[in-house]
Amino acid sequence: MGRMRNLEIFIIGIVLLVIGLNLLYFKHEIVIGLPDTKIGLTSNDCPKNNARHTCDEECHHHYDKTLNYTFVAQELRRVFTLKTDRGDHLASQQDFALVLGNQRAKKGFLTIGISSIRRNKLQNGWEYLVKSVQSIVSTTSDEQKKETTLVVFLADFDEDYKTRASAVLYQKFKQYFDSGFMLVVQANRAFYPKMTGLKRNFNDKPDRVTWRSKQNVDFSFLFGFSKNISQYYLMLEDDVECADRFPDAIKAYISQLAQKQKPWVNLDFSELGFIGKLFKSKDIEKLGIYLMLFYQEQPVDWLIRFFKHSMVQRDTYFRKPSLFQHMGTVSSLRGLKNSLKDKFFLKDANAVHNPKAKLLKTTMTIVKPANSLEKLYAEAEIFWALPPKSGDYILIEFETPLKLGGVYVQTARDPKNKVDYLHNGILEASQLYEDGKCSKFVQIVTVSYKRRHFLAVNLLTNQKVDFFTKCIKLTVTSTQNNWLAIRQFSVIGVPYR
Hints:
This protein is α+β, with helices and mostly antiparallel strands. The protein has helices at residues 2-32, 57-63, 69-79, 92-95, 127-138, 142-146, 159-179, 206-226, 246-259, 284-293, 300-310, 373-377, and strands at residues 34-38, 66-67, 98-100, 108-116, 148-154, 182-185, 230-236, 240-242, 266-268, 277-280, 324-326, 352-353, 357-362, 383-385, 393-411, 425-434, 437-447, 454-458, 468-476, 484-495. Helix 3 crosses helix 10 (284-293) and helix 8 (206-226) packs antiparallel against helix 10. 35% of the residues are buried.
């Protein structure tokens, strides 16, 4: 018995020794961080004979620092230290970042952050930015502006461009700078880590690696500047169109999740890139540090995904209809075009997603109750039916007539599935509703084998559906041997009022 006791003590001692060594190693790793990565300018990075970019003491202050968590946190706090007596005002150490505008003393509801650099293929480079700011201004009411702050970060390294862009913004939006609704900020060049010779993860070209790495640092700076301005922080890109009265829609969605007791770190108000991403302001300093630590590893939208998981948000909360649309085609990465559009966007403030249905009907045989049409429409489960015959259909009758803005249908259980998709069919909308029935259906689009994985229909300019409808109908036009799975059936529109 005594020997067994001694053996247990010996084993426990060995385990504790191993744990202790691991903790020491872990602590050592945190302190050392990434020894090959320098933050700030190296002597080679500092331009010579340039009055605007001199390699002064500030530059050399950064040179010998290694990029680790402790240093990054201290560096962000050094640049963005707040006064202890007036927490809502920026200390003198931060004043250099504020170029235009009056900071409000009272904390607001929403800070909107936009990071912008010159678009080289545009005449002046700031055309998209000006249009985006104008969209924000025109889609927010005077009352909404009182509790919203727009922070534009001119992140280009070209000082002359930033001076001219600032002048254009001030000339066009002077009243909003004076009121505190709009701020323009710039960063000291010494804030940036090295931007050349970075790791080429994913085999990206060096210029792309530099571009996406700088984006991470840009956003980190913007987070640090904006962390105490409002309760929530919304990230937009500098080429967006906004839905009318979007701050009210954001408030409503936050309240909706609170009623359902859904904790969250990030909410999505667009399906694209880093557009329409909402965070709690109390979290964005941590996010800024996270982006700085891994700035050269991955694009920002991928890092956000890992940050969410680290903060224990597994689900994605995407508000439909989207509130923001990507409008540009010229990317900030030289030579790249980007024509992506958000299929769930509708500008009208009264737009709804999957409005209340009076009737959900299908002639297909469901595999099991959990895969019903009702579950599909509520975005809870995949619709799954036995092999459909020609003439089988799905009918959705709305409680209120709807002016369609878009319909999005995804068939098959997943994008790579080559079995349970719809081979052939048509999507229709009814023009008449008499005696409790929909009639006079108008064909909107044809579904074919080539479009088996998804069907995206933008009806905004489609003259075929320039009317309010009570019903939409998806009809199978050829018998198929495979089962049919539909994993998404989204309807966007504006109810009749």
